[in-house]
Amino acid sequence: MLSGRQVLRRERGAAAVEFALVFPMLLVLLFGIIDFGMLVNTNVIVANASRDAARTASLGGTEADIRTQASAGLTSLSSRDSGNVTISVTCTKTAVACTSYSQTSSGDTAIVSISVVHQWLFPLWPLSSVTIVKTNQMRIE
């Protein structure tokens, strides 16, 4: 017959084995939550920067002003993502693409597109990065 101390010793060992089996899954879950939160944050930053730059374009800003506004909106990106940014400024004139943004006039549509390659913080996923593209368009006043 086993004494009370021997039973407790056996149960302690079982708890340690269970913890060793569950702990890696909990870590993967925690890292997944952190990574997904950072992806959502990057998505919101890019969407806001694109909208602000399109607003600058709609008020008649130059292409340099638009790019400066977009870059200013992207300053809070993490250092991993900030090196992979593409900003494009285009326009349409009554459903026909412009050859240059500088040829726009009132009533045309300014289109600002920002693309950011988001690098995963914990590369546990099959993809090492995700490309986030946000496009906004506004009528030029």
Which key terms come to mind for this protein?
4 strands; four-stranded antiparallel β-sheet; single chain; 3 helices; alpha+beta; 141 residues
Count of extended strands: 4
Q: What is the domain total for the residues?
A: 1
**Strand fraction band?**
15-25%
Mean pLDDT: 84
What kind of sheet is the major sheet? 4 strands, antiparallel
Mind telling me the C-alpha Rg?
A: 26 Å
The arrangement of helices and strands along the chain is HHHEEEE
Spans with pLDDT under 50 lasting ≥5 residues?
A: none
Ends apart, CA distance between termini: 90 Å
Describe this structure in words.
With 141 residues, the protein is of the alpha+beta class. It has one domain (4-139). 50% of the residues lie in helices and 23% in strands. Strands 2-1-3-4 form a 4-stranded antiparallel beta sheet. Strand 1 (85-93) and strand 2 form a beta hairpin. The radius of gyration is 26 Å and the shape is rod-shaped. The mean pLDDT is 84.
